[in-house]
């Protein structure tokens, strides 16, 4: 714990670069009585009944008030003053154009006023599905995964997301097709902790997670867009902050498991013109990445981050914003039982600078300019003795520099709100990569009767196999279990006298976009029209016009909003390792990865029930030409973008939320996705595992059902308890299609998989080589972790079907429990103590995200983990 606070202090003392800018909404107005006279002081409260977000203000001597940095949403506004009746009004924040309110207060009556938070007040007549999350809810989510709290918060908040390891998630059937818009700065490069670093949750005020139709102002990765508003000191009128310390460990018998220690500091101050908020976070953990074994082996890691946001409003018409971010991940790459001597490590450094400027021309027109520059530096280190790396040694030094500007003008005229702007950016890539084979059986020219490569370094050609008593390891041989022998890799087989493969390349990706949107609101109808034009100049060039249209209708008498939308989107290649993945090396195709186009259809509804329940459901259908994914290099965290000829994705997402009912609040999310992909595939460096399919298949984004239920109760402003239940029916397993492939695994892998034949488990000294009954019939081969379709060995036909019956991870039910106090002493005042206890995976469910997946590898869920947190809020 204390060494992490020291790491924060060290970072504070170093020159650093940073992140983002602000584009929240504004509500301003005046308060008068029935005669038009100024009412001052009057108390202003704006509140959302579902997210719990609220902001307060007081009128000045002229009866004026201003509420700033409001996340886009629907709000209930109340104005109260002594001797007057309460004034209330529904306010919708759709953009940064200030919303004007004139509150005319009537005299107080003798009636008792009762305020009821109604779910109908939170209905949004948007033509796209989205989820709103506020800091008050974030603080009570069981988020303790080091370095990827933002990803975990998104996974737990929306049913459109299938969770995966190491901060990955699959939004609406896609892999990593997500954009984070942080105070106006778009970031479409990867935010998983194995690629980059993430904004800490402690710096976030609210999130709008869009999983439906994207607006025309958004491009690149649009399956999920997280519009994030960070914390601000502007208008606070005081000095405020928090200091927290955390300590966590496994609640199981694991003497070798190292604890997780961390700390967080948040400091803010501001007045009507100036504000600043600063956050520093640090964590050190003995289980930083999700591991290929149930208990962590060689998995120490730490993360430190600094965030600062400065706001300055010199006049009522001008607003300056300056956000800075710097972060570092240092990680040991986890080992499995076949790689105990391996000592591979990784370091990621990220910095970002994003100033912003807004000018209000008048009450209807606003100019917003957001320039930015951001850099990721990725370094992957091999073991000092490269032969300790198994089955290959690899290293990389990669940089990604992204800079650009997004600028637009928003103007409101009557029922229309027009936005038109440009999105210009350049991404500079630098890639260095080294690779060498250290296992003589990995790329062996010969196989034995079981189809496994022969670890005999003297065999260098398939022509030598027959004389040596083996079979040639070629594609035409049906007994081949893994990838056939590749002569292209032979010069880099260190066990056969080869040398390291060395790659170096640089390149620039230039992207230019112009867009216009028109939001029309008339009566119960809302219509969104948009057109975006993208130009992509990288290793290839392409241009794509993208019409987008959405419509929503509010049937007020039933509290129902119906919506439908069509979107044409431009799918651009992932930038991480794009140069190497597009090169003609190591047996890759060498064809450069081209941008794709997608037709997307959405339809859904919102329904308010019983004044305290809000239901939101959405159906999506997406057809993509040139659909993107990653493939993972062996057991490392180095991945390469790949593109499939087509993909067809469809599914259903839903969320049921409640308002605050006497301290109780709940939500339930649900999602179902079918993810069908069509070859051929281009790019990547796939060396080992099940051969890529030649027909349509379900990729590992495909999951029949994922669901999250969160139940929370808070007693007054003090003690609270929260229970989260997560269900995942299981992602597709690509690396082990059937029982035959499981029999070819190493003894350690079979034990890890919990493999058994007719109930007799595999052991390290007695692995399973077949599963045949005494009468010659096929036995039952089972696994504790995956479903394992039968057959595929000894002449028994495989029951696996890539499209209709793929192997899957077994379903899992995971419970998380949290309890704490937001004010231990119950003393009202500016300073108070907080404490909480989180228990993740309460029942200690043993399960995997995936196993030997071609696209993600093997990763276990975190064992039962207990985390304590204490803090001071002032």
Overview of the molecule:
There is one protein chain. The protein is mainly beta. It is built from six helices and 44 strands. The strands form eight sheets. It has a 22-stranded antiparallel β-barrel. The longest helix has 11 residues, at 2-12. The radius of gyration is 28 Å and the shape is globular. The two termini are 21 Å apart. Residues 1-22 and 110-116 have low confidence and may be disordered.
Short structural summary:
The chain is mainly β and 874 residues long. It is built from 6 helices and 44 strands.
- Output the number of helix runs: 6
Beta-strand proportion: over 45%
Gap between N and C termini: 21 Å
* Backbone CA Rg: 28 Å
Number of strands: 44
User: What profile does the largest beta sheet have?
Assistant: 22 strands, antiparallel, barrel
Q: What level of helicity do the residues show? A: under 10%
Could you say which structural class the secondary elements and strand pairing correspond to? mainly beta
The shape is globular
**Poorly predicted parts:** 1-22, 110-116
Can you give the mean pLDDT?
89
Describe how the helices and strands are arranged.
Blueprint: H1 2-12, E1 25-33, E2 43-47, E3 54-58, E4 64-70, E5 73-80, E6 87-93, E7 99-105, E8 130-134, H2 135-138, H3 149-157, E9 161-163, E10 169-171, E11 178-182, E12 185-187, E13 204-210, E14 224-230, E15 239-250, E16 260-270, E17 274-285, E18 301-312, E19 318-332, E20 345-362, E21 365-381, E22 392-413, E23 416-437, E24 446-447, E25 471-472, E26 501-522, E27 525-537, E28 541-555, E29 560-571, H4 578-582, E30 596-609, E31 613-632, E32 639-658, E33 664-683, E34 697-698, E35 703-714, E36 719-728, H5 739-743, H6 747-753, E37 756-757, E38 760-761, E39 781-782, E40 812-821, E41 832-840, E42 848-853, E43 857-860, E44 865-873
Parallel strand pairs: 1-7, 11-14
Antiparallel strand pairs: 1-4, 2-3, 2-5, 5-6, 8-13, 9-10, 11-12, 13-14, 15-16, 15-44, 16-17, 17-18, 18-19, 19-20, 20-21, 21-22, 22-23, 23-26, 24-25, 26-27, 27-28, 28-29, 29-30, 30-31, 31-32, 32-33, 33-34, 33-35, 35-36, 36-40, 37-38, 37-39, 40-41, 41-44, 42-43
